[in-house]
């Protein structure tokens, strides 16, 4: 029955004990509050963040539209620059907005395309070039990652605050022991023989 022994050892601050100090009770409440804030607050922060990110991605998918654009310059096929992971290069394109006006802008396209080639670009509701919105799977993964990051950040803050509070309590206990020893210590200084 080692688990019962461990539980008794872990719960010693909650049981009545003549050696239990007020600081021990405060520390036990701090630890309990930190775990509750971590469990409940972390879950809430993670879910709220994931939901908010998912809404932003859904809004991006709703407002951005793909349009056909024409390359105005040739994009040479060259070796990727150091640190580049894709074979896409910036170039100038021309496209027509839903309102019928012609626009020109710079965007990334695959290397090796010639001037006059058609490519698909994305525009926002105002007809400006925008990055492609994440598809639902990518959005779900990124929302989950952002939610987990928010939960972890809150957990770090909670446990960091709890550690600071416990360190202050430890400092207070050590100071109390110093004051008590200053009263008792001189009486132990003589030797009996």
TrEMBL record:
It comes from Streptomyces hyaluromycini. InterPro entries: MT1774/Rv1733c-like. This is Integral membrane protein. Keywords: Membrane, Transmembrane, Transmembrane helix. It comes from the Bacteria. The chain crosses the membrane at residues 144-165. PANTHER family: MEMBRANE PROTEIN RV1733C-RELATED.
């Amino acid at each position: 029955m080692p688990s019962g022994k461990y539980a008794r050892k872990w719960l010693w601050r909650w049981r009545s004990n003549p050696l239990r100090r007020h600081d021990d009770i405060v520390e036990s409440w701090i630890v309990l509050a930190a775990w509750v804030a971590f469990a409940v607050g972390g879950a809430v922060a993670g879910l709220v963040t994931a939901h908010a990110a998912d809404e932003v991605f859904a809004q991006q998918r709703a407002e951005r539209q793909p349009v056909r654009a024409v390359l105005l310059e040739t994009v040479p096929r060259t070796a990727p620059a150091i640190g580049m992971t894709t074979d896409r290069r910036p170039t100038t394109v021309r496209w027509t907005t839903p309102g019928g006006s012609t626009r020109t802008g710079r965007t990334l396209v695959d290397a090796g395309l010639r001037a006059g080639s058609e490519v698909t670009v994305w525009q926002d509701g105002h007809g400006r070039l925008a990055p492609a919105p994440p598809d639902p799977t990518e959005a779900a993964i990124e929302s989950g990652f952002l939610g987990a990051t928010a939960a972890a950040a809150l957990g770090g803050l909670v446990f960091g605050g709890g550690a600071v509070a416990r360190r202050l309590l430890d400092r207070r206990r050590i100071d109390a022991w110093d004051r008590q020893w200053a009263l008792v210590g001189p009486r132990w200084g003589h030797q009996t023989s």
